[in-house]
User: What shape does this take?
Amino acid sequence: MKEFAFSPSFKKKLDLLRKRDIKLWRKLKKQLEFFQNDPQHPSLRIHKLKGELRNTWSLSVTMSFRLVFIEDEEYYFFDLGTHDYVYKK
Assistant: This one.
């Protein structure tokens, strides 16, 4: 099983999320648990990204909130936020 790693900016955003929206933070935690136990869990809606974010992956927390990561020796999470924020649209 691959380990999780988090960028410093991801950790800061995660701490802010926990303080501002505990319900969303709990959902995020639950999705990470699903991902750790079953990366193919349908609620995760994991997909590879294109364009400037090619070679990265997206994991859905809700229909509008995403986690962005790179898969290598570990899962390295480096961004989180709304769909439009993380995809810079």
